[in-house]
Each structure stands twice: as C-alpha cells, then as structure tokens.
Amino acid sequence: MTNLLANAIRFVTASEERRIDVKVDIGSVPPQADTCTKPPECGPSAPLGTETPLYLYTEVADTGPGLKPSEFETLFQRFTQASPKTHTVFGGSGLGLFVCRKITELMGGRIEVASEYARGSVFRFFVETRAGTTVTPRPRAYVPAPMSKDARRRILIVEDNVINRTVLQRQLKHVGFVPECEFK
After folding, report:
1. Which residues 6+ apart lie within 8 Å of 151 measured at CB?
2. pLDDT digits (tens, 9 = 90+) for 36-53
3. Does residue 141 lie in a domain region?
C-alpha cells in the first residue's frame, strides 16, 4: 500500500485535481478469477477461527494522468515503467509495482490496474490472510529467543545495486536470516 500511495502522490502533483481515494475492506469470499474487487457476500457469516481464510481488499485511486492502453503491458515488470517519459517526468526506477506484484502473489493474492488516459488510475490488490488471535504485547526491549539450528528465517531482498545487495545479504546471513534475492 505504501508504494501505491507514494506513486499516487507523485502522479497527482501535476494534475489540476489532486485527489487520492484509499479503500480497505475485508471479506470471507475470494474475488472472481479476473478481478481484485471484493465480491458481494451473501448468507450468514461463519464464526471466525484462526484457520478461517479472510481476504484483505485494498484500492488506491488517483486523479493523475492515467495510462494509455499500450502502457498496461509492461507496468508490473521489473525495471520498466509505463513509458520512457514516465521516469523523466515523475522519477522512479520501475521496480515498485514489480515488487507489489511479487508480494501480493506470495501472499495468495494479486494486483491489477484500471485506468483511463487523462482521467486517473485505480490500483487494486487483495491478499489472503487468516483471523488473528490475541497476542500479548512484547516488552519494548524485546530480544528474540535464540534460533535452533533447524529454524530458518527467510527475508526477501529487493535491491538493484549489486554492492548494496551483497553487503545486505552477508549481514543478514551473519545474524541468522536466509536472504532470498530477486536480482542475482
């Protein structure tokens, strides 16, 4: 959501109307296969348990410049932007939406865009989650318990600079993480 909001802010700055609408909803029914929009729920809802699947729906709409139909093809690809002009006018590396797509897919969801040129864009995504349980707050100086040899803490590194990526990988391995990197 942070990336979608940052993009919306960046793209509405040059618009006459500067409006960003954010919607967040939760439901117990997954979306249709061709959309990320929350379907209408019908019937009584079942009691929520810790294994009950829930779907978190998020939408960020802006009044920015919108997209041409030809610009949709490369939008969620790594290091690509809607058009060559996009980087020049608005900045960015073309990595943010790629990362958003990867994260939503890893969380059992997907992301989509609906846009009309010169009218704005709507980015929607959903992720699958579960009902939570009550957690006792941790003390401020929380120190995790030592990891067993079999425990693995995975972390995704998203960094386009090879030196920064290598340093971060080594630091994370040193403290017990198992870094995964999209840019090898």
Report:
1. none
2. 999 987 666 667 777 788
3. no
